[in-house]
TrEMBL record:
Domain Heterokaryon incompatibility: 193-346
Disordered as annotated region, ranges: 701-720
Pfam families with a match to the protein in the record: HET
The protein, known as: HET-domain-containing protein
Length: 786
């Protein structure tokens, strides 16, 4: 692909036989006009129609060759030259992209875009809108990145000194003195040090041990031939880069933790997130499979890098540019860092990050992001510090307890890998410490106590497997810290339920009432049971006049006309019964209110003072008394949300559908062959609309891969889709009633299996209310989940 890109850049002008400055091109003019659109306009995305691709290819302009070879997000576009092409610009972004739409056999509308591109700066033109800097494809401009730390301090002051999350400063036992080239015990109370976040990989990494620590403490030790020949390139480069930045101390795990001192090792590993949160800056080595890849592109320090910045001339002497990823090298090398579980909290708790990623260097802090291929942009910087859709990161994190917000962290984190899977609790400990300050009563194995029974109904996003302890594990098998009821016990992308009875913009599920109380236990035979304080149900039932402090009640007035394009009013995203009020909460410094259908407690104190310790890892077992039923799991399945994620149907003896199970991968084959008797326990009352869907299309979707259509087939299918949306707009109340009919009452449940008097979670499920009450065993059973 690099050769193709070279062809574009070398032949772009000769393709038309003219120089860019001679061309008078309508497409180039529209691109230039769009670069001048305001950053903070009313629309989330601006669109400018460019016309048919075939007409744009006929222009006597360099852009024609670009359009011929351009790559789209979803691959080659069928009947490309006959498509309508548009130009897009997202709110608060300078970059643009091209995009177009088409229809496939199973998808009514595919929207495919190009990589974002920016306008190259022209310093000779006053108030020029270009912000892209032309790079050296082999070497980083060290002067640019040396300026970032000082500029951050000068522009942002103490804002970027705040530690991420609820983390107290921590002084490591050892640091690398990069000036004296040795390991030292730092005598300063609050040293300013840099941390390195990287992947060890499958190489032999030099480590500090009891036998070599005295040698490493001698000045010059890390420059000796004996030691430097054993150090991986990433660590050597990080030492030299720290020195080039004018800093003295660097913390690297392999050098600054005595690896055969079990007590010291355990202590510093437990405080890893605090080390990264305390450090002034973290160097992130995101490229490369292992620690020998190095921080490439630092002239005089490391080997050269290889990036491919594409530069395209437009009419009027303007240029656009973007960096083309190399899929054969860059995407593969990024996988190692981005998929390691330990690097997740190293990255997220660092308050300043200098990242080497995809061959390019970038800066991130609490206030902004700078990249080496962009000049400073004060207007964009001002717009970057805003509310986040998450609990940790740059900007203003959310402080309102929310399972859907927690999902933004959980989905990515739990798909990452661990060398020793029993370490998942420790790898999440930094997040837990912070989240304990947000969720009332804290977390239990990554589950907020406040929403505990709802959180037990987590499900697979795209397949799971059960985590198992490594062969190095020497602990008690009954306390392996991998409980089946927690997402921590499983590897893969997981999600807590999106509860439409509580949160706005949630779909398909609602939780209306808690039906049991849960207790945490340290041992299966323990007589001491610690109550888990799940109180969401009490908040939901509280009278409106008992509104919690900080919340504001607003009368909910539904629209008269149903607008399909206004997702905030879609009945599918709302409680089953029409609410009379919506509640909003605004924290100081946050101009984006959080909305819910009922108010819940919010900790208004700062993360540093408002943390409530969660239950420690010894509480691996949970107990309750609840109803249970034995049902038949059918091989029949339906697709969720038109995707390739399927749920298996639960049937009664007459073959009628009465519920569903959301299975991890390892149980799909087991249930897909024949009907299987399963034991389910009730967790909470609620509803779902999943079983009301028309499954005909999803069944055909399951049988084959998506396919391109002929022109005639695509035109007919698109017309059907347009006709279904172009009828007279219905009344909102009518749509509300239709959506309400789809919401079927029932019991959220768990499929369990028993081993030595301990139950283990297999999957989340749902059973229709009438059927559960008819088929459940009388009375309540004691359930101990491990």
């Amino acid at each position: 692909m690099a050769s193709l890109d070279k062809t574009i850049t070398e032949n772009i002008s000769s393709a038309s036989g003219i120089t860019p400055s001679d061309a008078d091109c309508d497409m180039c003019s529209k691109i230039m006009d769009m670069f001048q659109f305001p950053l903070d306009g009313e629309s989330q995305i601006e669109e400018v129609k460019l016309g048919k691709v075939r007409d744009l290819l006929a222009y006597n302009c360099p852009h024609a060759n670009w359009l011929r070879h351009i790559k789209y997000m979803h691959g080659p576009v069928p009947f490309y030259e006959k498509r309508d092409l548009s130009l897009y610009k997202w709110k608060r972004m300078r970059e643009l992209s091209l995009g177009l739409g088409y229809t496939t056999k199973f998808t009514s509308s595919v929207f495919s875009t190009t990589a974002d591109f920016g306008l190259v700066t022209r310093p000779e033109i006053h108030h020029h809108h270009g912000k892209v800097r032309i790079l050296d494809n082999h070497w980083v401009n060290l002067d640019v990145i040396k300026d970032w730390p000082a500029r951050c301090i000068r522009m942002h002051g103490s804002i970027c000194d705040k530690t991420a999350g609820n983390v107290r400063p921590f002084k490591p036992q050892l640091l690398v003195d990069v000036v004296q080239a040795c390991v030292v015990v730092c005598k300063e109370d609050s040293p300013r040090f840099i941390t390195l976040s990287y992947t060890w990989g499958q190489i032999k990494n030099f480590r500090t041990t009891k036998s070599n620590i005295q040698q490493l403490r001698k000045p010059g030790a890390l420059r000796s031939d004996n030691i430097i020949s054993q150090l991986p390139k990433t660590i050597i480069d990080a030492i030299e880069l720290t020195k080039a930045l004018g800093e003295t101390w660097l913390w690297v795990d392999s050098l600054c933790i005595i690896q055969d001192d079990e007590e010291g090792l355990a202590r510093e590993l437990a405080q890893m997130h605090r080390i990264y949160a305390t450090s002034f800056l973290t160097i992130i080595a995101a490229d490369g499979w292992n620690a020998d890849y190095g921080l490439r592109g630092l002239r005089g320090i490391s080997s050269e890098r290889s990036i491919n910045q594409i530069i395209l001339p437009l009419s009027g002497g303007e240029r656009i540019a973007w960096i083309e990823p190399d899929p054969s090298d860059r995407e593969a090398s990024e996988l190692s860092y981005s998929q390691r579980m330990w690097t997740s909290q190293e990255h997220d708790f660092s308050k300043r990050r200098l990242s080497f990623k995809s061959g390019k260097v970038q800066w991130e802090c609490n206030c902004t992001k700078w990249t080496e291929d962009h000049v400073y942009d004060n207007e964009v910087d001002k717009l970057r510090r805003m509310a986040l859709n998450g609990y940790i990161g740059s900007g203003i994190p959310s402080r309102v307890p929310s399972l859907s917000t927690l999902n933004n962290l959980l989905r990515n984190f739990n798909s990452r890998t661990l060398r020793f899977e029993e370490d998942v609790f420790d790898a999440f400990s930094g997040y837990s410490t912070y989240l304990n300050s947000i969720f009332p009563s804290g977390l239990v194995y990554g589950h907020p106590e406040f929403f505990f029974d709802i959180s037990l109904c987590w499900y697979s996003v795209d397949g799971l497997r059960r985590r198992t302890v490594s062969k190095h594990y020497k602990g008690d098998p009954a306390h392996n810290r991998l409980p089946s009821w927690s997402w921590m016990g499983w590897h893969g992308r997981t999600s807590f339920p999106y509860d439409s009875e509580a949160e706005t913009h949630a779909l398909d599920l609602g939780f209306t009432e808690a039906i049991t109380e849960w207790y945490a236990m340290e041992h299966p035979g323990s007589t001491e049971r610690r109550p888990i304080k799940s109180t969401w149900s009490q908040c939901r039932k509280a009278p409106p006049e008992s509104i919690l402090d900080g919340w504001r009640s607003i009368e909910y007035k539904p629209p008269v006309i149903f607008d399909r394009y206004d997702t905030s009013t879609l009945p599918q995203y709302m409680p089953k019964d029409l609410p009379s009020c919506i509640y909003t909460y605004i924290l100081d410094g946050d101009d984006d209110p959080t909305s819910r259908w009922y108010p819940i407690p919010v900790n208004k104190h700062s993360p540093e003072t408002g943390s409530v310790p969660g239950l420690h890892s010894g509480y691996q077992y949970i107990w309750c008394q609840t109803t249970r039923a034995y049902l038949l799991a059918s091989p029949d399945s339906i697709s969720l949300y038109g995707s390739r994620q399927y749920i298996h149907l639960l049937k009664d003896i007459n073959g009628a559908t009465i519920g569903f199970l959301d299975l991890p991968n390892e149980d799909n084959d087991r249930l897909s062959q024949k009907e299987t008797k399963v034991e389910l326990i009730a967790v909470a009352k609620g509803w779902t609309s999943i079983l009301s869907r028309d499954t005909a299309e999803s069944e055909s979707y399951k049988l084959s891969e998506d396919q391109h259509l002929t022109e005639q087939e695509e035109q007919e299918k698109r017309q059907e889709w347009i006709d279904s949306w172009s009828n007279e707009e219905p009344l909102w109340k009518d749509e509300w009633e239709r959506a309400r009919e789809d919401k079927q009452d029932g019991y959220h449940a768990l499929w369990i299996e028993w081993e030595n008097d301990v139950a283990y979670r297999r999957a989340y499920g749902f059973v229709l209310a009438e059927e559960w009450e008819r088929l459940a065993e009388p009375g309540k059973a004691d359930i101990l989940l491990g």
